[in-house]
């Protein structure tokens, strides 16, 4: 745990130097470390380094480590909530007002308004923020027991509990809660046993009128390998979508972030950022911090030209829509005239298996996703993906028709994908 003097330094260091600090610290200690930056106003830059404790990941489970600042009204029971993710710091606009209103309604009347609440949308659009805002609100306004966990952490905990014969403890923990917040539920599909477990937990909580909130990067019916009984339950309450914010909202978000980080950029630069970065609030925030840190480090005013230069790679990325695994699956399915569902099915017939392998191969070559991530999107193990990629690579060397098909698909997905 390293102390910094304010939010701004925290975001800036996290954004730009965290991996470097982590590597250096890990090298010195000779073991893999997790580094957390915490805000301590007394940790002034001129002062000698404030107390620096570094947490060992073996003690601190992944997914549960989130720095809470001293003085925050987050006590035990609130889970690892990020103190910044409040309703008060969520800027509302047409793209998110419905999701915001439903989240607030749920926070004000948990278990009564909409149960479960299912929030979905692309990355960096505020799903985690809204979900944790519900957690904070309920925690601060009642004695309710709040449980926030990412689906991946839940999965790890479940596997641990199986190995350590602590399933009962796991079960009790999630069934004896008033508000269960599960982030990124689309990862639930990996473990059939966890789906079974979660099904019963869901029923217990639901029957007891306890609130359940879930987020996902896609609509319920597009989550591959999710049991039908869970699909229908997830849709019982209210499903709400977050879409990318419009220009006005992007401006409002940038203004809000400037105020809360106590920074100031010229208005034309704010307009420049809001005009060019449209798809992701996290990236919008990152651009603001990048320009501000440059200006303060070099004591130079930020001009439009400089902004364009500093944000070049972000802007290029923005122009080119990132290829998602889902888009690849869709294009490959269409090309080979099979159903999208076959991409994630267990069918092994050659007419389905080959396109599926081609899709996995393209996911690996056209995106930065890892084998396990690709495996997750196809409902397969990482070894299956690895095998598929090797196999397609080998086959293409001999089979020119396949090689042409893969080349054509890659081009289409990069330039003009079916969405
Ligand atoms: P997701 O979970 O959808 O990937 P997050 O909730 O992590 O996205 O949001 C990414 C970042 O953008 C966070 O820092 C969050 O505070 C910020 N953010 C997203 N939407 C808003 C908003 N409407 N107002 C203020 N900040 C937002
Ligand atoms: Mg999230």
Small-molecule binders here are: adenosine-5'-diphosphate, magnesium ion
Work out the oligomeric state of the chains in this entry. single chain
Order of helices and strands: EHHEHEHEHHEHEHEHHHHHHHHHH
Distance between the termini: 43 Å
Measured on Cα atoms, how large is the radius of gyration? 23 Å
What can you tell me about this protein's structure?
By secondary structure, the protein is an alpha/beta fold. It has four domains: 2-46; 87-242, P-loop containing nucleotide triphosphate hydrolases (Rossmann fold); 247-319, Helicase, Ruva Protein, domain 3; 325-415, DnaA protein, C-terminal DNA-binding domain (Chromosomal Replication Initiator Protein Dnaa, Chain: A), CATH 1.10.1750.10. The protein is built from 18 helices and seven strands. The chain has helices at residues 7-16, 18-29, 97-108, 127-141, 151-163, 167-175, 192-207, 228-234, 247-261, 267-276, 281-298, 304-310, 312-319, 325-335, 350-366, 371-378, 382-398, 400-415, and strands at residues 2-4, 37-39, 117-121, 146-150, 179-183, 211-216, 238-242. Strand 5, helix 7 and strand 6 (211-216) form a beta-alpha-beta unit. Helix 1 packs across helix 11, helix 9 packs across helix 10 and helix 9 (247-261) packs across helix 11. The radius of gyration is 23 Å and the shape is globular. Bound molecules: adenosine-5'-diphosphate and magnesium ion (MG).
């Amino acid at each position: 745990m390293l102390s910094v003097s304010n939010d701004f330094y925290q975001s800036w260091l996290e954004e730009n130097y965290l991996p470097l600090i982590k590597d250096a610290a890990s090298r010195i200690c000779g073991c893999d470390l997790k580094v957390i930056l915490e805000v301590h106003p007394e940790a002034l830059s001129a002062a000698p380094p404030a107390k620096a404790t570094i947490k060992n990941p073996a003690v601190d489970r992944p997914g549960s480590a989130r720095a809470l600042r001293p003085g925050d009204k987050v006590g035990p029971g609130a889970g690892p909530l990020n103190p910044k993710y409040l309703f008060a710091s969520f800027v509302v606009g047409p793209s998110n007002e419905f999701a915001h209103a439903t989240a607030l309604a749920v926070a004000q009347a948990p278990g009564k308004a909409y149960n479960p609440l299912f929030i979905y949308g692309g990355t960096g659009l505020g799903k985690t923020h809204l979900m944790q805002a519900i957690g904070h609100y309920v925690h601060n306004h009642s004695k309710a027991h709040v449980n926030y966990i990412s689906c991946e952490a839940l999965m790890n905990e479940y596997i641990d509990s199986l190995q350590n014969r602590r399933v009962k403890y796991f079960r009790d923990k999630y069934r004896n809660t008033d508000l269960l917040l599960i982030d990124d539920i689309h990862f639930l599909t990996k473990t059939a046993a966890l789906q079974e477990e979660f099904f019963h937990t869901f029923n217990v909580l639901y029957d007891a009128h306890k609130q359940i909130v879930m987020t996902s990067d896609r609509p319920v019916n597009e989550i591959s390998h999710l049991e039908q009984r869970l699909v229908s339950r997830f849709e019982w309450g209210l499903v709400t979508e977050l879409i990318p914010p419009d220009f006005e909202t992007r401006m409002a978000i940038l203004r809000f972030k400037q105020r809360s980080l106590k920074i100031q950029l010229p208005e034309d630069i704010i307009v420049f950022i809001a005009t060019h970065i449209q798809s992701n609030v996290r990236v919008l925030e990152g651009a603001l911090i990048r320009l501000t840190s440059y200006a303060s480090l070099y004591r130079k005013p930020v001009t439009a030209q400089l902004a364009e230069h500093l944000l070049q790679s972000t802007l290029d990325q923005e122009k080119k829509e990132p290829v998602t695994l889902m888009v690849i699956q869709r294009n490959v399915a269409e090309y080979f005239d099979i159903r999208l569902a076959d991409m994630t099915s267990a069918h092994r017939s050659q007419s389905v298996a080959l396109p599926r392998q081609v899709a996995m191969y393209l996911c690996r070559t056209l995106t930065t996703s890892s084998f396990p991530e690709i495996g997750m999107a196809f409902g397969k193990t990482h070894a299956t993906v690895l095998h598929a990629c090797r196999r397609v690579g080998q086959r293409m060397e001999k089979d020119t028709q396949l090689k042409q098909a893969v080349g054509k698909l890659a081009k289409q997905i990069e330039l003009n994908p079916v969405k």
